[in-house]
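Question (not urgent): is this output format expected?
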Amino acid sequence: MAALIAAYYESSGSRFVGMLLAHIRVSLIALAIAVLIGVPAGFLCVRHPRSQKFITGLFAVLRVIPSLAILLLMVPLLGTGTAPAVVALVLLAVPPILMNTVAGLEGVPAFMLETGEGLGMTPGQVWTKVRFPLAMPMLLTGMKTAAVEIVSSATLASKIGAGGLGDLIFTGIGLYKTELLLIGGAAVALLSLSTGLLFALLEKKTMKHSIA
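Got this back:
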């Protein structure tokens, strides 16, 4: 098996790199969009509590729909390729970012808010200089969860022509080539672990600054 894996890298190394980069590209696009949706939505939930039940409920319902089902539903609307894959991954990633944003912003101690107001900060400054900085570790935790889920679920993107490491995995399944399954699966696992480690380091650094 080791010889087969080595032979694949020797003959198709550039193709593997292309699939890896496509996987990362789709994942980064989906994560960026999810952050742009989830963080403002979380802010809206805290700023206007009456909207929280509706917003969190909406994304909770969307999240229970399997990613593959969303992919297939998006094909008639968006066709094949990256766009429907990104939509499915965004719907998967928004809830943890949203919920952690809400938890982080609501978890800021009241005395910290009162201190900011006592220093003459405007309401906007309290949000930007007190609430969000102190909530950042929780926000990053939500982003880490979302990023790991995106990376692992992006393998399905190959089903609709979006490329990525899923091409390698599904080719291995179709051709009964175990070495392709091992290469693709190991690459996705390592990418997920690396993503989690990166966000863990960011959380640790942010926590130090929060404490300081």
